[in-house]
Amino acid sequence: MEKLEMIYEGKAKRVYRTDSEDYLVIEYKDDATAFDGKKRGVIQNKGVLNNKISARFFQLLEQNDIETHFVKLLSDREMLVKAVKIIPIEVIVRNIAAGSLSKRLGLQEGTILKRTVLEFSYKNDELGDPMINHYHALAMELASEDELKQIEQIALKVNEVLKKFLAEKNIVLVDFKLEFGRHHDRILLADEISPDTCRFWDASTKEKLDKDRFRRDLGNVEEAYWEIYRRVCG
Q1: Which CATH superfamily is domain 3-82 in?
Q2: SAICAR synthetase/ADE2 N-terminal domain location, by residue (predicted)?
């Protein structure tokens, strides 16, 4: 399959057309951003690691009957995916209080939530991806009621599959962000699943192994990404 012109460049990825309308090529970048782009930097080899980590997670989810846009790895930085129309809703799945949830609700970081929390954000960089609920999503016609139900069900199943898998790797899945897209008449899990989009803590030490190390200037950022790669893909 031939890679053609670039059609989109985001904070962490570039997207290219192919000679088939049904497929795209995603290239992962080393660029890193935080706080709605206010903080910028480069994490060496991040693109390579996120590409391979995401591929491993997508393969795991497919094995557990969760449909994703992933087709195959093409190179260290590129994967072939099914072309989807992204639904402009980010789904945040939370198992443990951290980040913005701790600040918003006054919960100490590390508090185990009594049940999994799902949050929606409107995917709009200019507005800073504001939080929304079902009523907003329906009123703005971002998705139908049936699609929202599907998205919630898939997100909760993804959480259970990933938590179990990561627990075997001595990793706690604190929270993570998912995106979904329409592919013909199907809702597919899309975007990426990586230390950029998840909070991973070492189960023994509670050391952060994700982009929080970049956000909070904790150091050893690349080493944390490599550690997730070794445990997940090794």
Answers
A1: Phosphorylase Kinase; domain 1 (3.30.200.20)
A2: 7-231
